[in-house]
Structures are given as C-alpha cells and as structure tokens.
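Q: Given only this backbone (420 positions), what sequence would you predict?
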C-alpha cells in the first residue's frame, strides 16, 4: 500500500509546495489505481488487529482475515443492532467489545440523515486518517485554481457543545473533536491551512463571540482572502446574515482599532488584537458597501480576490445554491470532500463542477467499503436497509465491492471501520 504523505515541515524555507502537492497527487493515483488490492489489505488489517474482540468472536470469525469468510460470517447491520454494545462502552465497560484499541471518545452523528443523534465509538488514530483526507483537498484544488498558497482562507468554523457519558467518555460532533485536537490546534505551517480566523476564535464556545471575532478578523484581512467557506452552505449563509445585522459594530471596531466589549473571552480578545489595527479607510469602505440597498455580490465586493466558495451544497444543502449565487456574484461553489461521523470517505477530483454534478472518489485506505444495490420499484427507490434487523442471506450476497460497482447503478454505502 502506498505510504501516506508525511506531515509537513515547519519551516517556510524548507517548504517545497509543488513537491508536496505532487506527492499527494501521486498518493491519490496509487491508492485508487488498484482499489481492490488496497481494500483487501485494509480489511485484513482491521480483522487482524481486532481478531479477539467480543463482537467478531460472537459471530464466529475465529481469526479469519480473508474477505470471503468475512462476507459469509459477518452480518450487515444497522446502528440499532450494536446499540447495546455501544451502551456498555458508554457506561464504562473497557473490555474489547468492538475494537482492540481503547475507545477514545464518541462522535455524535449530525442528525442530517433524520432521527436521533447516534454515538459512534472512535479511536485516537482515526484523527490521522481524517487529517490525511484533509491534506488531499488543496493539492487537488490547486490544479484548477493556481496561487491559492499566496493568500488566506476565510472559513467560518465552530465548535459545538459536548457531553460525557456515564463511563466518562466525551461525546461530541466529529468536527468539534477535530478542531479541539492537536492535529488542528498544533498543525505545522501550511499555506493551505492559513485562515483569517485565529484558532482561539474557532475554539470559543460562545457562538456570538466566535462569529463576531471571525468576521472581524476576516474583514481586517480582506485583501488577503482567496477563498471563503464553511462546512455547510447553511453555516456560510448564517455568517452573511450575521454581517448584515452587525456590520456597523464591526466597522466601529475597525475604525478605532478597539474590540467591542461584548467580546469577553480573554484568549479571543488577545488573538483578535494581534490582527485588529485602527484603519478608518477600510472601515469607510466596508460601511459604503454594506450600506448599499443591494447586497448582491457582497462577497466579491468585500473580499475582492475571492476565487470560490467552499461549502457543501449537495443533498439538503442544495436549497441554498441560489442564495450563495446572489451573495457571491456567481462564484464557483465547490464541494471538496465526502465525510460523516462514522467514517471519512473521499474527495472531489473535479472540484469546479456544477453542484448538481458533484461526485466523489473514495480513498480506499479510509475503511472497508461495500455497496448494496438500491432496487427501484415503479421509479421509487426502495431502501434495502429498511429491514428490521440484519440483512437476510440473499441481500447479503448482493453486496458489491468497491472495484465492482457499476456506472449508473445506485447503492447504499456499507462501511467497516478501524474503530469497529
């Protein structure tokens, strides 16, 4: 299996961006060239390291690591089928139930698929896999939009509240977990993760202070911004609506070089004051633009060097496409990656495509992927995972490996992760 790209060098002098980009693009090419071999190795690795866990023993796998035995012995399940196991872990049972490695925390599902939030057990090393997928995005993007290393990204990133299970494990959304990790907070220098928002503003638990300070910092650095975004389109629209409501306060801060007293978090104030300097000319410019009757193209008016908007606009987020087009003056809307609480999956290798044409290339080192064909009845999709419990034997045999999916066929994605 090709070696994953190394972590980046700290020194800007030693930083050969083109060399790093080429290595990452080569990595993508290598792991996707023969996905079946990579997937076999991934499954064997997952089964080898977890050979003695209770769940695999329960189903009689008995140390087998080959794909045929795995498919024959292991049922395809839904979350509810292992909920009792997850509850045991949540309540403090540290035995090897689903995974041989210690469960480091629970990731809570976003709820975007409907229903209640679920608890996904995860392990420390999953942060490495998530970081790897993030590292693939900008080398791909730079093939289509050159010079992105010459400026900054204006991204509105936020943490959400977290809880503790009775057994003492943290339960929080996957992005909150990532932003609070050393992988994000102590990331080495990389022009592609050079954001207008200081870490302290992203990690501020008060949503008002976080949004206000992130917007203020981005306005102070408006000429340096080359790309803008948030995770979901809804989050980016929320930032623009916040700007509509509070631009007079923001202009006052920029003109005077003093920070609004409503921002009380000491670490946020300290981080913002390193960026905020008195700039009456910039304040007058922002005031003139925001004071106009129309906010059409406000993104390109305030941040004139912006090349694209980086947000998820697929699925339920597609409703925001017209609003984004209005505010951004028709800038490309880019969906870069496909990920979930359960597993990170893949990247968009054609990022400047229309939102309606977005597709993702799965990176086969992320987990073991299988595909369950979706049957159509009278033109309506019948969801094969709506069965009460595990799939029956016939449905089990329908599972298709990553290398064998057919163009034009619709599938449900079935995933086996390193974390169990």
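A: Predicted residues:
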């Amino acid at each position: 299996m090709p070696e994953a790209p190394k972590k980046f060098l700290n020194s800007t002098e030693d930083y050969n961006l083109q060399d790093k980009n080429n290595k990452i693009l080569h990595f993508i090419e290598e792991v996707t060239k023969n996905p079946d071999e990579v997937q076999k190795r991934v499954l064997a690795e997952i089964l080898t390291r977890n050979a003695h866990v209770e769940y695999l023993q329960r189903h009689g796998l008995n140390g087998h690591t080959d794909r045929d035995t795995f498919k024959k012995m292991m049922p395809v399940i839904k979350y509810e089928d292992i909920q009792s196991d997850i509850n045991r872990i949540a309540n403090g049972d540290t035995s090897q139930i689903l995974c041989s490695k210690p469960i480091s925390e629970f990731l809570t599902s976003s709820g975007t698929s409907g229903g209640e939030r679920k608890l996904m057990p995860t392990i420390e090393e999953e942060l490495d896999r998530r970081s790897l997928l993030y590292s693939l995005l900008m080398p791909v993007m730079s093939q289509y939009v050159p010079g992105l290393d010459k400026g900054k990204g204006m991204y509105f990133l936020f943490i959400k509240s977290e809880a503790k299970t009775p057994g003492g494990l943290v339960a929080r959304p996957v992005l909150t977990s990532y932003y609070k990790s050393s992988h994000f907070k102590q990331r080495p220098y990389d022009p592609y993760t050079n954001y207008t928002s200081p870490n302290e503003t992203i990690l501020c638990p008060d949503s008002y202070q976080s949004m206000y300070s992130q917007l203020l910092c981005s306005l102070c650095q408006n000429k340096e911004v080359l790309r803008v975004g948030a995770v979901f389109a809804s989050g980016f629209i929320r930032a623009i609506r916040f700007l509509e409501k509070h631009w007079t306060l923001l202009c006052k801060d920029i003109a005077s070089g003093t920070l609004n007293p409503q921002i009380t978090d000491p670490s946020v104030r300290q981080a913002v004051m390193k960026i905020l300097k008195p700039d009456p000319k910039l304040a007058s410019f922002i005031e003139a633009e925001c004071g106009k009757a129309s906010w059409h193209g406000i993104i390109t008016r305030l941040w004139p060097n912006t090349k694209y908007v980086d947000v998820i606009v697929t699925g339920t987020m597609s409703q925001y496409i017209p609003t984004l087009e209005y505010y951004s003056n028709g800038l490309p809307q880019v969906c870069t990656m496909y990920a979930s609480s359960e597993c990170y999956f893949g990247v968009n290798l054609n990022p400047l495509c229309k939102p309606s044409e977005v597709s993702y290339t799965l990176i086969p080192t992320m987990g073991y992927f299988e595909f369950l064909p979706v049957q159509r009845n009278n033109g309506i999709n019948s969801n094969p995972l709506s069965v009460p419990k595990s799939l029956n034997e016939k449905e089990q045999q329908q599972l298709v490996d990553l290398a064998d999916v057919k163009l034009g066929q619709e599938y449900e994605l079935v995933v086996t992760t390193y974390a169990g």
